[in-house]
Amino acid sequence: MRQKFSSFVIFGAILAETIVFSALASQFASVENLVNVALSIAVIGILAVGMTFIILTGGIDLSIGSVAALAGVVAAIVTQHTEIASLGFAAALGIGLASGAFNGVTIAYFRVPPFVVTLAVLTIARGLAFIFSGGRSIGNLPESFGRLGKLVFLGIPFSVWLMILAFALGWFLLRHTTFGRYVYAVGGNAEAAFLAGVKTKAVLFQVYVLNGFLVGLAAIVLASRLGAGVPNAGLQYELDVIAAVVVGGTSLSGGRGSVISTLFGAIFIGVLNNGLNLVGVDTYVQKIILGVVILLAVLADRFNRPD
Question: Are 64 and 229 spatial neighbours (Cβ–Cβ below 8 Å)?
Fold first, then answer.
């Protein structure tokens, strides 16, 4: 019931900001701009699906933006040397899966706090991205590398369809599989879940591997849209992603939330950023507003949390 109420609130907030921005900027409600909003949240949305699983277990991943940048750089390097974009994209997925596996092993089996592990990986991945790229963007790639970022199906960018697929996958896993029930159980009370026979360490490991896969997918979309491997891509993506998950009503303490609520949260953040840009709000002021929104969402979660 509490989760349904949170979804209702965020849906109402999206409706309210849509009405306000439509009144302040005539071009906001145009079909072209709405497609732009969807395109702008495609990468964030894919990343937010994985982050939802992690936060449901009571964890966090600060490394997603840096790993996405590293995966994009590696994809560009492989494509540049082989002239086969699919091999580059496969390498990007490999980087994502490897980072997810490393995070999962270190957090689940060595019991290092997720904040510490993913902060370290954030720094390492960003450093490797700059080392591998020589500190510059890797361009002059085959046309096939950027084709995914330009592809449109039924009037909607293909990257948006990938985001929808990611949300559908996340919804199915959480709502209709034993794995999804275990994710909620671990986040709600890991000790009780363990005593009930849940292999909590394995669940945590699998959650971070799933997140790594989605980071690799997001990296492919981002690099293809940029048409290059950019070492400083994905800067502060973790902020927007965590904001989408938290604003959507997923509890930072774990055990409560949903992928559908995260989708609403991503839409809210996308509409907010787009609307503020159209009405000419300063970039730095936008960051302040986003920070206030995150704080309000966390406070709401704190007050709604059962004692």
Answer: no
For the chain, the domains span 30-235
Query: Residue 251: helix, strand or coil by DSSP?
Result: coil
pLDDT at 5 over 70: no
The residue-averaged pLDDT of 87-101 equals 98
What are the percentages of helix, strand and coil residues in the chain, rounded to 5?
75, 0, 20
Report the C-alpha gap between 7 and 171 in whole angstroms. Answer: 14
Amino acid letter, 130: F
Q: Which residue has the higher pLDDT, 14 or 300?
A: 14
pLDDT of 131 over the 60 cut: yes
Mean pLDDT for all residues in the chain: 92
Burial label for 43, CB within 10 Å (0-12, 13-18, 19+), is buried
Does the pTM surpass 0.70? The reply is yes
CB-based contact 214:265 (threshold 8 Å): no
For residues 198 and 182, give the distance between their C-alpha atoms in angstroms, rounded to a whole number.
7
Decide: 249 and 10 in contact? Cβ < 8 Å: yes
Quick one: 15 exposed, middle or buried, by C-beta within 10 A (0-12, 13-18, 19+)? exposed
Q: To which residue do tokens 């996405």 refer? A: 68
Which pair of structure tokens corresponds to residue 218? 């997001």
CA–CA gap between residue 220 and residue 158 (Å, rounded): 12
Mean pLDDT, residues 11-20 taken together? 89
Reported residue count of the chain is 307
DSSP helix/strand/coil, 58 = coil
